[in-house]
Specification:
The complex is a heterodimer of chains A (358) and B (274).
Chain A: H1 13-16, H2 23-43, H3 46-72, H4 80-97, H5 103-122, H6 130-150, E1 163-164, E2 168-170, E3 173-176, H7 182-205, H8 207-217, H9 219-224, H10 229-256, E4 258-259, H11 261-264, H12 267-280, H13 285-309, H14 314-335, H15 339-353
Antiparallel strand pairs in A: 1-4, 2-3
Helix pairs in contact in A: 2-7, 3-7, 3-10, 3-12, 3-13, 4-5, 4-6, 4-10, 5-10, 7-8, 8-10, 12-13, 13-14, 13-15
Chain B: E1 10-11, E2 17-18, E3 21-32, E4 35-46, E5 50-54, H1 61-68, E6 76-81, E7 84-86, H2 91-97, E8 99-102, H3 114-120, H4 130-135, H5 139-157, H6 173-186, E9 191-195, H7 203-220, E10 223-227, H8 231-237, E11 240-245, E12 248-253, H9 255-259, H10 262-269
Parallel strand pairs in B: 5-10, 5-11, 8-9, 9-10
Antiparallel strand pairs in B: 1-2, 3-4, 3-6, 6-7, 11-12
Helix pairs in contact in B: 3-6
Classes of the chains: A mainly alpha (358), B alpha/beta (274).
């Protein structure tokens, strides 16, 4: 079976506008889902869950969210870390206030709260653009981190100022707290990621996505054809913050277990996720996954190679790792400024003609 | 041949029935600080006609079009659309009234495909909310495909089937102009404003574009107001012509009337000073 669209005739508009128009891609998608849901949970152990899969899934959610805002709607944001903190503290307050509630509901509510906060900090985008907006969202980042440090109510007056996740269940299985198994963590994050990725895809291929992209590509023309910039920009902030809030909630509740805001949700987190989006590809769902995978897996891989293979001291390896990752990012962006999603697109275009390119 | 400009409308030389007043500009003045772009201009656009605005460079034509499209609010004077006075409106509110336009410098969304660009023209008609679209369930999908069908008709009409999935940024200039027209048409406007639809085109592209303009006026009954520098095109296409110079109106009437107007001849050819 070759990678072709020829012979695969589309007779309805719904066939024509599906996510994977080429049969080969469709099969690949189903196989990936099958492995992710059917095989990995059976073989996963604590190391793989904590070092690779869970952070990848959570960062992919955050990258999807930021990509909606930066890649699709064209509104630059540096407040991702702050919004993740809103998600984390919301889920903490919700879980401690209503202990019996299924964790999924807590997580989604945390996303909704973050969406509201995101809309609030998105208001400046109606007047300012580009770098100036980035500075305004930077203010959100610092303000939110300061707020969660300063007001003891947010961390339930704990002496250390840390928040620690209580045990939480979903359908009778622990998904947060010390008794959680690796496969439960993994599956919980995976289910949320798959649902949100489908939502992101649906939004970006339909009317809402077109509004966002119209605002991104030429805001004056968008307004003249009937896009209300207020609702378009604020809906982008709301949806994006919802995703980021969910990612923040999972990052704290499932991945870290205990967190301190300046450490877990600093400006570095904002940059890390922005890099994921840029390296993966702005305005691409696949790019969000690719960028998250690249920046989560590469350090793990380098560490294993440097420490495990060459036997170098860990501190030296840690420093080298930073330098190598940085150099790779720079090199990568020079080679392909539109990110991994563009490489993927080019590869697919080549593949469609292979082996007779002319 | 003189035509009667009665309120009930008139019949053009080629036998098309033109209706009553669709849009009326009354004593429009537009100032930017000390610069007067438009000085006390009144004219009307009738239902179903092709109305041209011509004039030398800097005459204020594009400003006039921006006033009609609601992008500029006139300093003085009133705009009536379907006999209703139009207050200051946001551009997106004007779009909902049924006024669409194209731009002198193409204003397409470069990152989106041709199909997506044209679909944006129908944004104002889509009702389904965020949640329904997020789940791609029920009304969202139904609406999407219903509008897609309408858009495909426009794609057929403008003969751009083969590029529908191409990103607009990759298209040559002439095709971009055509896609922009398609996007404006997708809104099913009552009044279509074209700002220099033929600028920078070669003869064949101009012929194509003229054919599209005449066809869409004929088939969809769209009223068209256009700015154009190519006099041959203007005189052939339009039913009535407004001539502007230095922000004033110096002529208004059928192409023949305008051609023989002494003020217009002076503005284009210059006057001998002794």
């Amino acid at each position: 079976m070759l990678y072709r669209e020829a012979g695969d005739f589309k007779t309805t508009y719904s066939d024509d506008s599906q996510t994977f128009p080429i049969r080969f891609d469709r099969m690949g998608y189903y196989v990936t889902l099958l492995i992710a849901f059917g095989v990995i949970p059976l073989v996963i152990n604590d190391y793989w869950a904590n070092a690779v899969f869970v952070p990848f899934l959570i960062y992919a959610i955050a990258a999807l969210g930021l990509n909606i805002l930066v890649g699709y709607a064209g509104q630059l944001s540096l407040g991702t870390g702050g919004f993740m903190a809103v998600g984390a503290y919301s889920v903490y307050k919700l879980m401690t206030a209503f202990p019996g509630m299924p964790v999924l509901i807590d997580v989604l509510l945390a996303g909704a709260i973050t969406a509201l906060v995101g809309v609030l900090f998105g208001l400046p985008s109606l007047r300012i653009k580009g770098f100036y907006l980035a500075v305004a969202t930077l203010a959100a980042q610092f303000f939110l981190v300061w707020l969660f440090n300063k007001v003891p109510w947010f961390y339930n007056y704990s002496a250390s100022g840390m928040i620690t996740v209580p045990q939480g269940k979903m359908l009778g299985v622990y998904v947060t707290g010390a008794q959680t198994t690796a496969s439960a963590k993994y599956l919980f994050c995976l289910i949320i990621l798959v649902l949100l990725a489908v939502v992101a895809r649906n939004l970006t291929r339909g009317t809402v996505g077109r509004k966002w992209m119209a605002i991104r590509d030429m805001d004056i023309a968008a307004e003249i054809i009937g896009v209300n910039p207020l609702t378009a920009k604020l809906s982008a902030f709301a949806v994006s913050s919802f995703f980021i809030g969910v990612a923040g909630a999972l990052f704290f509740a499932v991945y870290l277990g205990a967190a301190e805001v300046t450490e877990a949700f600093s400006i570095q987190k904002s940059f890390l996720i922005l890099f994921m989006v840029i390296i993966g590809g702005l305005g691409s769902i696949f790019g969000s996954f690719a960028g998250a995978a690249f920046l989560v897996l590469l350090p793990v891989l380098l560490k294993n190679v440097l420490v495990g293979q060459f036997g170098w001291p860990t501190d030296l390896a840690a420093h080298l790792e930073l330098m190598i990752v940085g150099a790779l990012i720079v090199g990568f962006l020079i080679a392909e400024p539109h990110g991994m999603a563009q490489l993927w697109r080019l590869a697919k275009e080549k593949l469609r003609l292979w082996p007779f390119p002319h | 041949m003189p035509v009667s400009h009665a309120e009930e409308g008139y019949v053009t030389a080629d036998g098309r029935q033109i209706g009553g007043t669709l849009m009326e500009m009354k004593n429009i003045t537009l100032r930017f600080g000390g610069v007067v772009a438009i000085k006390d201009i009144s004219f009307d656009i009738r239902d179903g006609e092709i109305r041209a605005i011509i004039g030398p460079n800097g005459a204020g034509k594009s400003s006039m079009l921006n006033v009609i499209s609601g992008f500029y609010v006139p300093t003085e004077g009133d705009v009536y659309f379907k006999k209703v006075k139009r207050g200051p409106m946001k551009p997106y509110e004007v779009a909902r009234l049924g006024i669409a336009r194209t731009f002198q410098n193409i204003a397409l969304f470069d990152g989106m495909s041709v199909l997506d660009n044209i679909m944006t023209g129908r944004l104002t008609m889509i009702k389904s909310g965020l949640l329904s679209q997020a789940l791609w369930y029920g009304s969202a999908a139904r609406e999407e495909y219903a509008h897609r069908e309408k858009v495909e008709r426009i794609i057929d009409f403008l003969e751009i089937q083969n590029i529908r999935k191409t990103p607009v940024g990759r298209l040559p200039y002439g095709l971009k102009k055509r896609v922009e027209l398609a996007r404006a048409l997708a809104a099913e406007p009552k009044l279509l404003l074209l700002d220099e639809p033929m600028a920078g085109m070669n003869v064949e592209e101009k012929e194509d574009m003229s054919r599209f303009i005449l066809d869409l006026n004929d088939e969809f009954g769209t009223t068209i107001c256009l700015i154009e520098h190519d006099m041959g095109v203007v005189m052939d296409l339009s039913d009535r012509v407004v001539v502007m110079d230095y922000g004033r109106k110096i002529g208004d009437g059928t192409p023949d009337e305008v051609r023989n107007n002494q003020d217009v001849i002076d503005a284009y050819l210059g006057v001998a000073h002794d």
